Amino acid sequence: MEDNVEMYQQTVASELDCLQLDKLETEWIKEVIDNDFLQCQDIPLLYDEILEECHITSRLIHLQKAFLLWLESNRGSSEDSEVSTATRQSLGSSLMPENTSAAVNINLTNNGSRFWSFLFQEKKVNIQSLLALIGFFIDRGSTLSSTHEERQRCFEAAKMYLTMICIPGSMAFRVFHQMLYMKALQLVQLYVQTRKYHQKSALQSQQAKKGHKQTQPAAEFEEEEGEAPIGPEEIAAVEKAMSRFLDALFLVAQHLSFKRYPNILKETVECILPIINLDRGAVSLKALEIIHNFCNPLHGDAVQTVHHVFVHILPYLVLDPSEKDLNNKNLVALKDISFNLVNSFISKFGEIIYPLVHGLIKHVCVEVVDRAEYRHKTAQTALDLLQLIPEEHRQGTIRWFLLLAHTEQAFLRLFSLEILSILLQNGQIDMLTFAVIFGQCSDQSATVRAKALSILGECIESSDRSVVEIFDIIFSEEVDRQTTGAEELEEESDIVELLQGEEPINITAALLPKASVIMNLLKERAVDEKVHVRKNALQLLLSVTRRHGRYLTQDLLKLLGNACRDVAMLIRRNSAQMMTDLLCEHSENEAVQKIWARSVLPLVIDGETRVQEKALECADQFVLRSLVGNDSQKGWILLEVIIELGLDIYLSKAVEMWSRQKQIPAQLLQTLLSNSEQRPRAALTLVAIFARHATIDTNVKKFALDYLQENIGSTNSVNVYCIQQVYKVIGATLPSMSKENVQTIREISSRFVANSQLSTNVIATACDMIVFCIQQQVADEDKARKEAAEWAGEIISSSGEFLSIHLRKQENVSPEEEEQLARRILTLGCVGLHCPQQVNKRHFLLLQHAAFQPESGVDAPIPFSQPQSQPKRKLPPRLQAAAVISLGKLSVQHEEMAKRLIPGLGRLLETTPHEAVRNNIVCCLCDWVIRYATAIDPVMPQVTACLRDPTPAVRKQTLVLLIHLLQEDYLKIRGTFFFRILQLACDDDESLRDLALFYVTQRLLHRQPTIIQQHFIECVFHFNDYKGHPTYNRYALTDREKKLFSIAGQQHTRRRFQIYQFMLQNLDDEARFQLTFRLTRDVLHGVVEEVMSLKNASTEAVLKDALAVLSCDDIKLASLSASTDDDPVEKEDIAQAIVQSTKKAIIAQVVKRNVIENIVPIVVALKRKLAANKSSLMGNLMLFLRELMKDYKDEIQEILAEDRQLMAEIDFDIKRFEQQERMEAELPTPRVDRTIPPPELVNPREDEQVRVQSNDRRSLANNRTLRPSDKPVETPIKSNAIPETTEQVVDNSPVEEALSTSSEPQKPINQSRRSARKTQVSFANDSARLNGDPVEQVPSVADTSVPFVQPSVDKLPPKNVAAKRLLASRIMSTPIRNVPVDDVSFQIRDVDLSNIHLPDHENNQADSLPELESTPKRKSKRRRCN
Predict the structure, then answer these.
(1) Which residues contact 1066 (CB under 8 A, 6 or more apart)?
(2) The predicted structure's pLDDT at residue 277
(3) Phi, psi of 647 (to 5 degrees)
(4) pLDDT band for position 1417 (50/70/90)?
(5) Which of 244, 472, 1113, 1167 has the fewest other C-beta atoms within 10 Å?
(6) Mind giving me the DSSP string for 165-188?
(7) How far apart are CA 600 and CA 1002, in angstroms?
């Protein structure tokens, strides 16, 4: 072997002699070395000729082979035998190769020393000249602009040098030069640049083939890189040369020790890692093998080297934030390679690098890109890394995941939930994890709440055994009953405190929430302000009710029904599907059927097309398809419910759309006719609807005619309703009937009308049909009119004679006589409406006698034009109501009689005790408004007073009629009309509240956007009945009107605030800004200037209301209100956020100037005024002043700088005031959409579609109207507890608190809040107004350069020192530098690792990466996509 070594030494010496290094100029050599090989001047010309003669490239190749043969003959070397000895002692001899004994090391070192001594002492080789020459070759060939020959010399020189320094003693004999070694490593950058250019060129060629425009041509690449591109052949040559270069570098990893040069080791590793991430070819595999060899005790601390590798691969594990396509093959390949690299290190080093892996996982978590798709993939990566560790070493990291769910940064809490979701999918969830997920359902971030609710939904749907057992424990009846007083008072375990503890957590059922707590939380989240929170909560409620039917209560059904009227299109659409799914499972539940009909069916006229389509799909499933399917019973029951609730108008709209789309089954009509006897109401109603919108065959016409002949005279309520539907069918098909059938219909109807054999509900329809038949039979209009007059004359005459005889009788009216009188009275009105010329004054006098009956204790309001000699027979209220409606019909064509009747009807409206009479009077007067608007004006106050009628049906009828008149511009809002409509916002009847709020938000504000702003201050004075102001509330009201509409006084404080709150929610920022100024000027300043005297009790009430309005949150500008939700901002919202921020800054300056110049001086003056008068309103003023100080503290201090005593007094008063208060949670409000009109406001004309602008800002206003009967319920505050009550409760908000503030001391209270549920309720059939029947109301059913911050969330327990230390140990504090992806150097030069050593594994309790001491600290900030 020694002979071979000597031979190789001679070969090396011979090759070096050929280079004639002694002929290199000394100055040139010195300049190259002094410049650290960075700037190499051209080689001297004389020596350049020598290089050409000696064929320098061949010489370099021969030298590299000679060095390699020498190494092979010596079978490896080591720089220092102490390295292997120390490593064997620390890591075990099994990790070291067998030939690393001390004897062999000494022998190899001696051989290397002899080699270098032979070259430098015997052969006198100038090593400086050789190094300078090598540096020159590398410098000239390491750029893209180099020639092929220069690049070949470069690679051969670098390989030769790397092989040469592997010979032992290269460092001692100064053959190893740090800068030259780093210069050689720069060839890796050349390879990376070449590969990138090749990939970019391939992409451009593909795009060119597909016809796309090139994203970046070669010219642009040349400008960016500053170098000319290279051709495909040169790219292949570089790749081939790099493969041989890595072979030489592999020798360095095996033979040369970098133990004393940790920085060079770090640079080497970071230079090689980019090759691994380029592709999966042979070059990458070689680079990966080199990395493993550098992670070797030969080079010092192997774990520290692994740390450097982890630093570099971190960006690839968390994915590139600038990458739009996460399925990009290169991106996925980079992540897979990085993952496999970690896996290989774990296999090689085992337990000793588990802390590094834990730290890497934590860094992956905190470096996640703040976007949904990145969070999911990064979470999966983190768990995949965790799976590489044995299960017994995972608990600490999983515990850290749970603790991460309580950190301050919302996007990290969201990422933690993403990890927990994947754990759930893998069946790795326990009670503690479930408790953490449930706790995040109350997170302050809406995105976190939505994600937590989504995971809970996955839990409920999961079939995993452990998850099923958890829900069995929660929803078991035995556990749910355990609500004793002792348990309620016992404090619940704090999850964060448990996670921060050192001892193991005892996972028991005590960690789980109770079923009632879950249900109450879901109900609160179902009315959350954020759309996706509501969506997930509603879906959860539906899932729970599917599995546990006992929770399907009426309150829950109302909540699900309200969701179908949500302001968000997504919620309405999903709720329609959810209600339909619920109906599928509970098709026989009457409550579910009614809620479905009231909530889903009205969506067929929704403003959003997709909601319409979903509603039509659901209705088609349960109405059309169900009726012709095998299980038709469900369809018939649902159809009967729809008709019973009076929602057939929506069904009519649905049929119209189905008819256009040709979705009506052909056999449906035959099915309806065949069931007309078993289910006559449902069948005939649907036939009548089809007759108006679809083509009807002769069978239906024949059926209608036969049914009319058989049942027209029936008095049965079902038959009467069916006759009305048959008349609708006939009316739709009459033009296509034969003349014989038309004559038959006319004769039958005329005979029964003339003989008064029709029910009162059918008379009007029959009269209309007779006139229609005459018009169809007689083409000439004049002749048709004459023929109709002849027919009407006989009936009017006979009816008049009958009434004249029976109304003059003195005895009481029998039931049979009452029925005949009612029929005659209504017949007279209906026939007279078609032929008014046949009606004379005598007929009016008869009806006036029946209408104006003397009431007990009340003088009869006889019109002045009526003679006093009329008969005095007392009639039942039903006949009185019928007479009123007939008078209304007759007077439509007799203006003189109508004007005479108007004062009497107005007086009768005030005095009559009968609701049917009041209802019909309102109908008559509202009909007359269209023709006699001026004459009706004097009695309109009496009409609007019916909005406070004791009967809800009358109030509803009045409101519907007034809304129709207002919509058609027959009425104008004057005087107190608007205030009376607003008072319905706090009506006791929920359907009335919904109807009034719908009109104001969706109709009135669209026509008069400033009406609320104009009337707000007037409302404050009017509702408090203040009469002393020279400008406001100058209306003249009667005592009756004051009594009906008065809401002044302390007992009506809640009602007034509900109205104020509703008005404020429907004001924009400009209107709120002006309102703040006007309230301060007109009310507060009015008190200061004694325009309003404090001695007046009404003044205190007005001032109290004004201060309450000024103190509430709703009056604050929405553009300035600081959002408490730190939800992540998506990339597409950044531009909008910048615009909003700029707008906010401008508005803030204007508002502050207004506060400084106008509000604060008035408030200070008012404080002095109230203090001087010892007023009880000082508390209300302090509440307003506290809000001012909260928002404009600096400005107020600047104003009061001169009066320090006053400033001190204000501070003292505010602090004392705050001590008397309890902090309260924000009032949750149901997000109810007002864009779908109720049945009363649906356009009855089938050819007109009702459309509402769903994107109007006022459709988003949540009308927080509450029932006056609701009272606050006191409940003890518990951690994560919700009041377990099914009653709807409300609580005083901060403004209500201000309204109720008085001189009495305030008592601290703890109250829970819930929103008032609003349910759409059907209304009474308005056909009742045409007859004398009483109107019945339908009953309503982070950056990681700094350590993690201690988690700071609401209700966290106080942290002691031990807890802080424990948390710091559990949360990784190692800063890892984020290396840019586009940085091809990856050289971290600002980190010195020379003083870092691997901690003792046995004593090290932290699971973090070793800290990089010199890494600069940066402020924590959230990673976002640029």
Answers:
(1) 1000, 1001, 1005, 1012, 1258, 1261
(2) 66
(3) -100, 20
(4) very low
(5) 472
(6) TTSTTTTTTT---HHHHHHHHTHH
(7) 20
Q: Which two tokens stand for residue 516?
A: 């009632």
CA dihedral angle for residue 992, residue 993, residue 997, residue 998, rounded to 10 degrees: -50
830-855: b or e for each residue (b if 16 or more CB lie within 10 Å)?
A: bbbbbbbebbeeebbbbbbbbbbbeb
- pLDDT at residue 1173, as a whole number: 85
Q: Which candidate, 299, 99, 77, 244, places its Cα nearest to that of 166?
A: 77
Chain-centre distance for alpha carbon 338: 36
The CA angle 545-549-553, to the nearest 5 degrees, is 80
DSSP state of 1274: B
Answer left, alpha or beta for residue 917, where phi above 0 means left and psi between -120 and 50 means alpha.
Answer: alpha
113-127, 151-165, 1294-1308: range with lowest mean pLDDT:
1294-1308
What DSSP designation does 1258 have?
G
d(CA 432, CA 505): 9
Alpha helices in 1066-1159 (DSSP H): 1069-1079, 1085-1088, 1097-1111, 1134-1154
Give the span between the Cα atoms of 419 and 383, in whole angstroms.
7
Alpha helices in 527-647 (DSSP H): 531-547, 554-563, 569-585, 590-599, 609-619, 625-628, 632-644
Both tokens of 1235, joined, read: 């864009």
Say if CB 700 and CB 733 are below 8 A apart: yes
d(CA 769, CA 404): 75
Judged by phi (left if over 0) then psi (alpha if -120 to 50, else beta), residue 1246 lies in alpha
Q: Which of 243, 232, 234 shows the shortest CA–CA distance to 199?
A: 232
Residue 732 neighbours by CB distance under 10 Å: 21
Statement: residue 1080 has pLDDT above 50: yes
| SS3 (DSSP) at 1311 | strand
CA distance 203 to 524: 53
Amino acid at 1266: L
User: ∠ at Cα 612 (611, 616), nearest 5°?
Assistant: 120
Which is nearest to 848 in space by CA: 818, 819, 823, 828?
828
Rounded-to-integer distance, Cα 181 and Cα 134, Å = 10
**Higher per-residue confidence, 945 vs 1383:** 945
Q: CA dist 763 to 692, 733, 775, Å?
A: 21, 20, 19
* Tokens read off for 984: 């319905």
Count of other CB atoms within 10 angstroms of residue 608? 20
Nearest to 334 by CA among 359, 313, 310, 362: 313
Nearest to 684 by CA among 660, 666, 665, 706: 706
Distance CA 247, CA 290 (A): 9
Rounded to a whole number, what is the largest CA-CA distance in the chain? 155
Closest CA to 940 of 902, 892, 891, 895: 902
CA 434, CA 456: separation in Å to the nearest integer?
Answer: 8
Buried b (16+ CB within 10 A) or exposed e, 1236-1272: bbbbbbbeeeeeeeeebebebebbbbbbbbbbeeeee
Give the dihedral sign, CA 1200/1201/1206/1211.
positive
Predicted TM-score (pTM) of the model is 0.71
Tokens of 843: 């007929």
Q: DSSP of 808-877, one letter per residue?
A: T--SPPPHHHHHHHHHHHHHHHHHHHH-GGG--HHHHHHHHHHHSPPBTTB-----TTS-TTS------H
How far apart are the C-alpha atoms of 341 and 273, rounded to whole Å? Answer: 10
What pLDDT is attached to residue 1206? 59
